[in-house]
Amino acid sequence: MLKKERQAYILHQVNLHNKVLSSLLSQEIRVSEDTIRRDLQELAEEGKIIKVHGGALSHSFNEVHYPAYDVYSQDNKKIIAQKAAALIQNDMFVLTSGGTTIIELARTLPRQLKATFMSGSIPAILEYMQHPTIDVIMIGDRISKNSKITIGAEAIAKIKQINADLCFLGINAIDVKHGITDNDWEVVQLKKAMIQSARKKVCLTISEKIDTLQPIHICDIQRIDVLITELPPDDPRLKPYADQGIQVL
To answer: CA spacing 20 to 30 A to 19: which of 47, 146, 171, 246?
Structure first.
């Protein structure tokens, strides 16, 4: 790739997955990690990404009060949020991860809804707090400055004590063969605990992340009950997931 093409690819991956690893980009583009680090530095100096140790973050992912910057594929995320909100009933206990799609869900909740929302995501908690009739439980522990979410053994132990009606997961990659995958080890541990602590597991993702793979495994596809994208349920891209017994919305 030419430098311009390489940096455009990197920027797209940052926007799509919110966080990227230099080592993974090096493998995908087939250039040295030093080249990737220089590209990330230039993109950061241009204000397009946030460079962190081992990779980069998108601006929207890094904001506590978002969006200070445009959120990637925000219109599609709003469609997903509307579909997800329709699954929530009064008096439910709802467990959520973090991510920009989860934030859209928080903003889409009906004003008359009476439910309890539990999360370790600081941006999500701040949005839930704006709702007039839902109860909010913060799952606390050490805070990841990158992902703006509580992480660590105490947070996982608290999640394991929960018996939620619904768990909404904003996901980074999904594939029929490899299941749900991510690129952040500590966030993966949280999501694994969330999956174990809910009766129904719902994955929220824009369609660009369908049939993609990240390096760390969260769960097999069979552990997921519902997959929500911006696509119509009969879209051919969703058929392999429906064939696995997953409800697609």
So the answer is: 246
Burial of 185 (0-12, 13-18, 19+ CB in 10 A): exposed
Domains contained in the chain, number: 2
Number of Cβ atoms within 10 Å of the Cβ of 81: 23
Same domain, 189 and 100: yes
pLDDT digits (tens, 9 = 90+) for 70-98: 677 889 999 999 999 999 999 999 999 98
The predicted pLDDT at position 144 comes to 80
The answer, yes or no, to whether residue 172 has pLDDT greater than 60, is yes
Do 84 and 202 meet the contact criterion of CB atoms below 8 Å apart?
yes
What CATH number has the domain bearing residue 10? Answer: 1.10.10.10
Instruction: Measure the N-to-C terminal CA separation of the chain; round to a whole number of Å.
Output: 37
CB-based contacts of 44, cutoff 8 Å, min separation 6? 50, 51, 56
Measured distance CA(219)–CA(31) in Å, rounded: 30
